[in-house]
Here is the input.
Amino acid sequence: MEFRTLFLVCVSKSSDPSSPRLLRALRRGCGSDMIEDCACARVVRADNQSDVTSSDRMCKGLIGAMYQLASNFSKFGSTFIQGCMERPLLLDLFCCAGGAARGYYEAGFDVVGIDNKVQPNYPYEFIQGDAIQVGKRLLATRTVGAIHASPPCQKFSAYRRRGQGVGSGYLNLIPVTRELCRESGLPYVIENVPGAPLENPVQYCGSSFALDIRRHRLFESNVALTAPECDHSWQKPRFPPATNRKNLRCTMEIGVWRIPLPDQQRAMGIDNVSLRELSQAVPPAYTKHIGAQLLVHIKSKSQR
Ligand SMILES: C[S@@+](CC[C@H](N)C(=O)[O-])C[C@H]1O[C@@H](n2cnc3c(N)ncnc32)[C@H](O)[C@@H]1O
Here is the structure.
């Protein structure tokens, strides 16, 4: 069972004569009594993972029933189907304040974040602890659809900027993270900075998403990801430098005190995070794009 929760929301006018009929037909369509009747919206949840086969059958039945009924019921004046989301659970290891998480959520995942530091700005379920230990526990106890991991990058970014020897005090958690991901058998993504020892990564760039940043980031995955190509050509000198230098910059500098935080947040496409959190974040646009590809992969596997 890949899906943690299936929501089927049907919105109709409360006085709509088709409502009871809609409910009956939906129950018939999915062969289940797991439909809650609310005043004018009905929410179906397939949370119970104890019976994998019947839940899976129910999900597929529901989706089929929904599409079939959408056409029938529109003629009775219902606003009808507003949305149907299958939201697999994604483990967000080394989550910080959830830059990456925001993109996966927007793509259609439920997200649980794990970080060894408390993260008051993380917008979804959060567990404080060691990413590998807690990750193993969650994989054993929850139905997880995919894993994203952003192990610390200081070792590789400091090395790149300042040369040999710098960064040697930092741990390289990429191998142990990769081992956890591979053992899980799930689709996974490991993110890091250029220069990090990732295997066959694809590179994302802010210029591909009309963001005022470049912020190249690498993503390793066991799913064949495609990244849009960089296009720096439209990023013209427009931004004041954070230093006393005169030349304008083509992109917004991130993580610097002399540039207002809201400007930096806008450039990254994230709000409600501190400067320190922002400086560590993955732009949500990247992971929304990746998340959509993971969902296609998960859905295609579940239909086989
Ligand atoms: C680069 S940041 C992650 C950024 C995040 N993906 C985002 O988009 O906002 C790395 C995070 O790993 C956390 N961290 C470092 N070692 C850890 C460990 N052993 N277990 C859990 N978290 C850890 C740090 O506290 C930091 O928040």
Summary: The first helix runs from residue 19 to 30. DSSP finds nine helices and eleven strands in the chain.
